[in-house]
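Protocol step 4 of 5: obtain the predicted structure for the target chain.
Materials: sequence only (see below). No template structures provided, no constraints applied. The aim of this step is simply to have a reference model before the mutagenesis design in step 5. Sequence pasted as it appears in the construct record:
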Amino acid sequence: MRNFNLSADLTPLYRSAIGFDRLAQLAEHAAANNGNAGYPPYNIELLSENRYRITMAVAGFAMNELDIVSEGEKLLVKGIKGQNKAEDKRQYLHQGIAERGFERSFQLADHVQVIGAELENGLLNIDLIREIPEALKARKIEIKGSHLIE
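Step 4 output (structure tokens):
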């Protein structure tokens, strides 16, 4: 019987993944290790072959309370809520809407870049594109036959 080391580095296996396949796995792994696991909820969509969208439910957050930073292959989304708690004199009978800050990070796949973001109806949409440099794209190599000289 063989023993398998589950903590082994599986990075070489991920290299065959295309674009966001790897990102989805890494995003779920990051969420599991995050103190705010599950908050805020998000979707990852495939819009076309090389275009993706992360949609996060950020109801109650204004644009000035959200921060998106893309650095290298890491995307960090922060929500900073409750800056003016002292000024808020509301008295809640029931408070079911979360007013806590969050920090959600995503590991982007190779050559994936953020191209824009918009906040609409409590949903933060972050658009991404995968642009593979020309030098790394597959190219067809012409096969030439040898000409026999008689």
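Step 4 remarks: DSSP finds two helices and seven strands in the chain. Helices lie at 11-14, 20-32.
Proceed to step 5.
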